């Protein structure tokens, strides 16, 4: 792992004034004399959208208990199918979260060979609390590696919680729901950053921060849907997971801030 330092980067247009001028001249010379009409392209795009199939479908409830429960929720004006789709989405995301933290642990091990590069989670959370953020207290005396291992374990526990919830609702936790499919596709870039051997620890933490922000918003929405479906006990369990995710978010954000502001020029940044 190498530090991100100034180099021979010539991707900007200002690095080559002559080339930029030549490109501008060519554009002026070859540009159509009238504004380009993109109407046909936009119409074609709308046609594809109108005629395309959906990404997938939500599997039907498997058990009688689940079907009865779903029917009760529908009478309350909720949409149990959407709740199951979103539970499927979170299953996919939490499963990916375990893999992301596995990759981050490897990146941290490589970056910390020359010494500690991250402060204990307790230190960065003190800053957050001073800013008025209420989060779960970290384990006292926990080293950064232990914190990363704990977060990975909590992501796995959230995955298992969601699988149990899906089963309780009469669904199949191994099924790929439409939202699960979409979120898995959207998350592909996150894993690519984490497993790229060239990326630094700070760049990986920035990527994890994106995941944690999405994760927190996803749990908040899932809790709202569970409450609307009359699944109060389920919403309570989801609230416990959200509290842990909020702690993950504060920790990752604090670590990233510390690295970028205090570790510039080091291999971790």
Major sheet details: none
Number of strands: 0
Determine the N-to-C terminus distance. Answer: 10 Å
Q: What oligomeric state best describes the polypeptide chains here?
A: single chain
Q: What is the CATH superfamily of the domain at 78-262? A: Ferritin, core subunit, four-helix bundle
CATH class of the domain at 78-262: Mainly Alpha
Low-confidence stretches: none
What class do helices, strands and sheet pairing give? mainly alpha
- Overall, the morphology is flat
- Average pLDDT over all residues: 89
Please identify, by name, the CATH architecture of the domain at 78-262. Up-down Bundle
Radius of gyration computed on alpha carbons: 24 Å
Order of helix and strand elements from N to C terminus: HHHHHHHHHH
Indicate the percent of residues in helices: 55-70%
What do we call the CATH topology of the domain at 78-262? Ferritin
Strand content: under 5%
If helices are DSSP runs of H or I spanning 4 or more residues, what is the number of helices? 10
Organism: Ramlibacter henchirensis
InterPro entries: Ferritin-like, Ferritin-like_SF
Protein name: Ferritin-like domain-containing protein
Topology:
Layout: H1 17-30, H2 39-51, H3 64-75, H4 80-111, H5 121-130, H6 144-168, H7 178-186, H8 188-195, H9 201-228, H10 232-262
């Amino acid at each position: 792992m190498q530090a991100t330092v100034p180099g021979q980067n010539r991707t900007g247009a200002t690095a080559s004034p002559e080339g930029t001028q030549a490109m501008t001249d060519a554009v002026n010379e070859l540009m159509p004399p009238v504004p380009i009409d993109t109407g046909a392209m936009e119409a074609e795009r709308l046609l594809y959208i109108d005629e395309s199939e959906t990404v997938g479908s939500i599997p039907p409830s498997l058990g009688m208990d689940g079907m009865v429960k779903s029917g009760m929720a529908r009478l309350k004006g909720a949409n149990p199918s959407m709740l199951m789709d979103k539970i499927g989405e979170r299953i996919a995301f939490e499963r990916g979260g375990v893999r992301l933290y596995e990759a981050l642990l490897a990146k941290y091990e490589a970056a910390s060979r020359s010494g500690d590069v991250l402060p204990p989670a307790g230190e960065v959370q003190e800053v957050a609390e001073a800013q008025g953020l209420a989060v779960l207290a970290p384990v006292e005396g926990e080293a950064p590696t232990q914190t990363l291992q704990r977060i990975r374990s909590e992501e796995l526990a959230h995955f298992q919680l969601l699988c149990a919830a899906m089963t309780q609702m009469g669904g199949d936790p191994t099924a790929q729901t439409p939202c699960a499919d979409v979120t898995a596709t959207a998350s592909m870039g996150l894993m690519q950053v984490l497993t790229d051997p060239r990326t630094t620890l700070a760049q990986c933490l920035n990527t994890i921060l994106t995941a944690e922000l999405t994760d927190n918003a996803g749990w908040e929405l899932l809790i709202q849907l569970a409450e609307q479906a009359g699944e109060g006990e389920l919403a309570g369990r989801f609230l416990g997971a959200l509290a842990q995710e909020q702690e993950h978010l504060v920790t990752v954000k604090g670590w990233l801030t510390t690295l970028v502001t205090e570790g510039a020029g080091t291999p971790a940044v």
